[in-house]
Amino acid sequence: MIRDILMYMDRTFVPVTNKVPVHELGLNLWRDHVIHSSQIQNRLLITLLELIQDERMGQVINRGLMRNITKMLMDLGSSVYQEEFERPFLEISASFYKTESQTFVECCDCGEYLNRAEKRLNEEIERVSHYLDPKSEAKLTDVVEREMITNYMQRLVHMENSGLVNMLIDDKYEDLSRMYCLFRRVSGGLSIIRDVMTSHLRETGKQLVVDPERLKDPVDFVQRLLDQKDKYDKIISTSFNNDKTFQNALNASFEYFINLNNRSPEFISLYVDDKLRKGLKGVSEEDVEIVLDKVMMLFRYLQEKDVFEKYYKQHLAKRLLSGKTVSDDAERSLIVKLKTECGYQFTSKLEGMFTDLRTSEDTMRDFYASQSSEIGDGPTLGVQILTTGSWPTQPSPACNLPTEILGVCERFKSYYLGTHTGRRLTWQTNMGTADIKATFGKGQKHELNVSTYQMCILMLFNSCDRLNYKEIEQATEIPASDLKRCLQSLACVKGKNVLRKEPMSKDIVEDDAFYFNDKFTSKFIKVKIGTVAAQKESEPEKQETRQRVEEDRKPQIEAAIVRVMKSRRVLDHNNIVTEVTKQLQARFLPNPVVIKKRIESLIEREFLERDKSDRKLYRYLA
Amino acid sequence: MASDHFDFFEIYARFCDIASRSDHTSSKDLLNMLSRSLESRGNMRDAIFDDLSKLMSCLRLSVDSRQFNCFYDFVFFVCRENGQKNITVSKAISAWRLVLTGRFRLLNQWCNFVEKHQKHNISEDTWQQLLAFSRSVNEDLEGYDPKGAWPILIDDFVEHMYRINQSSNCSAQEFCCSCTDMETPGITNILS
């Protein structure tokens, strides 16, 4: 009102004489005489702070009054608000939270502490929105964060029995997400969480992959890895806001510990094998895809992808040849995934295997169509024609087939070679299976599903009831290790012991004798006699596979060296090693010593030469 | 006999001449021709070391000279047989003992090591790099750079020497590394 009355003066007189406008003058007078008066200044501040203290302790205060007072201080200019209220307020807040966090941290576990800290932080934010200058918010939260979080981060994370590691172990999603949100507010907070998570992951992962107990069951081994991955994926997605840096830390940790165990590639392939043989029966297509995707994810962590390929090929071949695969679609889907991951080269041979089987089916159909009149009652032959090179076949001497089989085999051979000139057929008797009918003591009939080797052994008992080991070995010419395994599964497995062994021991020795077991009974008509197969590779087999992998790597490394040198012409040793490693790491991690060996070999074969003046430099010789 | 020596000297002179050329492909052809003419002299497989030592005494080579480089390469060149690229371990060792005596402090250890651990022939690169190696390291293998692009055989030798030095340090057999007889039981244990 006063301003209205003096408006004219304000407009004309004040600007000309450089006087202070009336409204401002009023405010200044109010500031100097009331707010800064020695009687009021302190009392006002103390009252305000006490009110806030009361509210912090849980009492209800008159927020309207508070708002009016702070508003008044703000109207008097931001410096008045800051000097008269904000600065002391922040100081007292700091000391309040210093003591409070001290008591909290003494008496609470980590989760509870975070809970209370979060509540306090929210209260302060709410306080600002109700009766303080919005500009104070950042300053105030800074104080709370510093006092309650920054000062205690390490202590909280490492708190015994309730710290970060325990939260991770017990899947405390809420606590974890609270920790994430609070720690994110302060600098360096997230990296503390990430570092602790990483080291915990690596520690547990390492224990998992090097634990000799776990190595006994490859499927369980991989399942545990997958569970671990699932667990942390869920933690990161629900509690850590899908933070990319956390995901990267997770991936790096997995990559680190999976490769600590050089059997990981084999085990992952065995896991797939188990899933595709039986694990996925009756599972919907989407679920199959999920499992396969998870496997691919582990695959990506592998450094030695070529070793996986080797095993995968072996296992796939066994699955395909024994007709054990649950779903062709699943098989194909995985191959497509491998192809997108590693390119055409990686899978071309795997695809070749599928093609072989399809062609074989057609060939067999044509064979029987052409021979229908002549074959008559003989055994039905199913031949799978495998292209050499596509399959992981090892040349093994063919065993002596029974004459019944031999006839039809010869017939097929002449038919096949008649239609495909210039090819060569060799029988891989170590890979086949046979269904044979057998009649036992009381006249009960069973259909036995056995391997080709086992079939050859059993057929011998058509003509006599007792044979000793030597006789069987001579008659069949099956390699000793395979023969022992076959006999073991025919005579030593309960419920499938169609042969009887003397003496009755678990292991086969050279002077054992075998009898046709006419007391054999089984409640099934069809009896499947598996070979006591080594699921996991034995030590010598492992060595052999290793060696083959190393051999296969040599030309790849040489090719990479030549590629690098062809484009660079001149390069020093260490750079070649780096470049070659980079080129090959999609498949495996080449050993620098091996690379050096290959370079030496290339020098010898005059693809490269050493520079005359700088011996560390190599030149490409076109 | 005398004319034979003259021949050998001449071949060496021609070798040095060819080696100093910069054109890679033509010098290769020339070397092949030279190698054939060397071979046509025949009956010199055992005599070659005699020839070499005579040549060496005439040349009076200093350790670091370029002349010695050429001579060193020449030794490899004449040690090859039937146009092979490599030379056998036994020949290489004899040749090393002939030309590097007094020029490589670890010569004895080196030859013993190669004799025991190298099954394949010695390649030209390994041969040449040994000279560079003998010049860049001292007795204690100081100056060896594991990232120095040395041939594997040299890397292995260094590692072998480290191991021997280490175990001899702790087992008080202080003179093992410099002892000439590698067959002492203490060393054999370490190697196995």
Brief summary:
Chain A has 622 residues and is mostly helical.
Look at the structure and name the CATH superfamily of the largest domain in chain A: Cullin Repeats
- Poorly predicted runs of chain B are 172-192
Helix content of chain A: 55-70%
Number of helices of chain A: 26
Oligomer: heterodimer
Family (chain A): Belongs to the cullin family.
GO molecular function (chain A): ubiquitin protein ligase binding
Domain Cullin family profile (chain A): 263-491
Keywords (chain A): Isopeptide bond, Ubl conjugation
Task: Describe the structure in your own words.
- The complex is a heterodimer of chains A (622) and B (192).
- Chain A is mainly α.
- Chain A has five domains: 35-159, Cullin Repeats (5 helical Cullin repeat like), CATH 1.20.1310.10; 189-356, 5 helical Cullin repeat like (Up-down Bundle); 357-419, no CATH class; 433-528, Cullin, Chain C, Domain 2 (Ribosomal Protein S5, domain 2); 539-620, Winged helix-like DNA-binding domain superfamily/Winged helix DNA-binding domain (Arc Repressor Mutant, subunit A).
- Chain A contains 26 helices and nine strands.
- A three-stranded mixed beta sheet of chain A has the order 1-2-6.
- The longest helix of chain A has 32 residues, at 344-375.
- The radius of gyration of chain A is 40 Å and the shape is elongated.
- Helix content of chain B is 65%, strand content 0%.
- Chain B has nine helices and no strands.
- The longest helix of chain B is centred in the C-terminal third of the chain and has 19 residues, at 152-170.
- Classes of the chains: A mainly alpha (622), B mainly alpha (192).
- Chain A binds chain B through residues 572-574, 593, 596-597, 600, 603-604, 610, 615-616, 621, and chain B through 24, 85-86, 123-126, 128-129, 132, 147-149, 151-152, 155.
- Chain A: Keywords: Isopeptide bond, Ubl conjugation.
- Chain A: Belongs to the cullin family.
- Chain A: Residues 263-491 form the Cullin family profile domain.
- Chain A: It comes from Asparagus officinalis.
